[in-house]
Amino acid sequence: MEKDINQCEQLTSYFLKELTPLQREQFEQHLAQCSSCQDELKELEGLWDVIPFTVELIEPPSGMKDKIMDAVFETHFSAESESVKEAMADIRAHTSASVYPGFRNWGLLSAAIVILLLGAYLLGNLHGKSDVANAPRISPQSPWNMQKTVALKPVDPALSNSTGNVWFMQQGDSVQVILHAKGLPATQGSESYQMWMTSGDKKWSCGTFQVGKDGSGILLYTLKNGAVQYDSLGVTLEPDAAGKQPRGRKVLGI
Known about the structure:
Elements: H1 5-8, H2 11-15, H3 21-31, H4 35-57, H5 64-72, H6 82-95, H7 106-119, E1 145-154, E2 163-171, E3 174-182, E4 192-199, E5 202-209, E6 217-223, E7 232-238, E8 249-253
Antiparallel strand pairs: 1-2, 1-8, 2-3, 3-6, 4-5, 4-7, 7-8
Helix pairs in contact: 5-6
């Protein structure tokens, strides 16, 4: 079909679950008829599935990490900026032949990867409770360090195919916690999934996220003191996003 420019431009926001319920419904109607968007969405979903392995197993070539981080923390964040283009050119050169063969829309990919992994909170897509305006100042020159990765397992036997990966990435005094959950039932109405950390007798929320028909959800949270100290991590399905303590059933844990 002839490409609907207005709706096709919503693909990245749809992939990142930024659309309102009405916008999402309208885009899905468009998606059912647009082969171009179907192909690009399939490629993005396939790429995201291998990102955890890339993060854990592949060390970026010398200088590439700094280029990517500089791109993320530019004052005027843009997928068309020169540093983003340069960083993504390096990624293409080192990954497209062996890891991501055939991927076509690198402009869309550059925005999606940077937003998903590190930059979403800069664009107002933070579902956790950290205050972006008052967040610690992060210098682009400070190195990023992968502190640890945690695999979450299903707690409910009925959700045996559900999984979650949590990354703790530190730069200076700031630690970004990134959760990617898969295989979860879609949220309905006001329902929200909520991630919790426990240390001793203290339990606190890391924020909430929604899950669509694809069963996946993403959450970003900033640890204010920069320390990764906890006894347990878990995800619950809550009746809404307002809970200060768990009220719903636990679906993922360590």
